[in-house]
Amino acid sequence: MSIDQRFAIALVVMAAASYLCRAGGFFFMRFVPLTPRREAALRALPIGVMTGIVAPVVLQGRIPECAGLAVAILVMTWRGSDLAAALAGVAVVALLRQIL
Amino acid sequence: MATAARPPFTLAGFRQGFVRAQALAPGVLLYGVVFGILATEARLSVLESVLTSVFIYSGSAQMAALQVWRDGAELLPLFAAIVLMNARYLLYGAALRPWLAGAPPLASYGTLFFLGDGNWALAMAERERGQDDAAFVLGSGIAMFAPWILGTLIGRLSGGLIGDPARYGLDFMLIAFSAALLIGMWKGKADLGPVLAAGLAAVMLAPFVSSGWIIVAGGLAAAAAGALTHRSPVPNEATS
User: Fold this and answer.
1) 8 Å CB contact of A17 and B179
2) pLDDT(B237) > 70
3) What pLDDT was estimated at residue B1?
4) Where are the domains of chain A?
5) A14 and chain B: CB distance < 8 Å anywhere?
């Protein structure tokens, strides 16, 4: 168990950078009065982030990942359980990666 | 200003978040193991590896930091690498403002320390379904933070036993989960604009930037679309 001094300084810098990102947006919004329009913007944000996570995978167009997404979406529409959907998607990806 | 009602911040809400996020815990654990192994290769001690996972707590940012660390560990590039990798958290925090603002500062700023992609996505989806308890965010955050630290420790101590998590498709867990949450969040025509805007942003930027930035762009594009398509019930509320 040891920490050298160079690492300790780097750790403080890295921790500051990380927490700044986590707390910064929340803190900043304190000075931005919430109008209904801005609330609508914040409400639309999560679905855009989800799209931003999923879209590049579709664009890459690899078969296991695209099939995994299709299965996850089907299971979610059919059963309404995000856990079951994600697990089914992962299973399909793992299986197809073994085969292809 | 208008929302004076304080959201509850209770143990029950914490527990619900903790239980709901367990779906994502095994994937997080394995990626923690991977980071532990990489940290061994970058010659970080056990304590240093664990402290890195505690205080950065972000897979992509930690991988980037290791790279900079190997290249001489200059402080400014180290800082910049982490801010660039974690810029999306600025948006996550902003989106949490209406929900967490009513909680005591120690609770809200403490909760933000444990903010991650998975638990944020889960919490926002649950909020759409009527979850009001702000401790849900903290509970789900801790549920993912703990396996990340444990995984780091296991990986640093064991080195190379587990192999590539991609073999089990575990790198796909967050993506599949996001797709499912997207479907779950879909309420109808009002969501079409934001999703199309985010998709368009992703298509245009994908060849040029890393996935972290595509997430930022998707979120911003959807927020802009959400603001533009919002119909104010009060006619003279035009400025924004």
Assistant:
1) no
2) no
3) 41
4) 1-32, 45-100
5) yes
Give the gap in angstroms from C-alpha B218 to the nearest C-alpha of chain A. Answer: 5
Chain A partners within 8 Å of B197 (Cβ): 48
Q: What is the pLDDT of residues B5-62, one digit of tens each?
A: 678 999 999 999 999 999 899 889 988 988 888 788 788 899 999 999 999 999 888 9
Give DSSP secondary structure letters for A16-76: HHHHHHHHHHHHHGGGS---HHHHHHHHHHHHHHHHHHHHHHHHHT-HHHHHHHHHHHHHH
CB contact under 8 A, A82 and B180: yes
Q: A24 versus B159: which is more confidently predicted?
A: A24
CA distance A14 to A18: 6
Instruction: Give me the residue from A15, A48, A82 closest to B184, CB to CB.
Output: A82
Selected residue of B148, B175, B191, B220 to mutate for chain A interface (largest A Cβ count, 10 A): B175
Quick one: tokens of B76?
């400014």
Percent of chain B with pLDDT over 90: 55
Residue A5 CB partners (closer than 8 Å, separation 6+): none
User: What is the number of other CB atoms lying within 10 angstroms of the CB of residue A67?
Assistant: 16
Tokens representing B98 are 């209406």
Q: B224–A41: do the CB atoms touch at under 8 Å?
A: yes
Instruction: Tell me the nearest-neighbour CA distance from A83 into chain B, angstroms.
Output: 6
Give the pLDDT score at B233: 64
Query: What confidence tens digit (pLDDT) does each residue in A26-80 have?
Result: 999 999 988 999 989 998 999 998 999 999 999 999 999 999 999 999 999 999 9
Amino acid at B193: G
Across the interface, do B48 and A11 touch by the CB < 8 Å criterion?
yes
Q: What is the mean pLDDT of chain B?
A: 88
* Closest C-alpha to B156, from B40, B51, B75: B40
CA–CA gap between residue B66 and residue B50 (Å, rounded): 13
Among B181, B110, B111, B140, which residue's Cα sits nearest to residue B28? B140
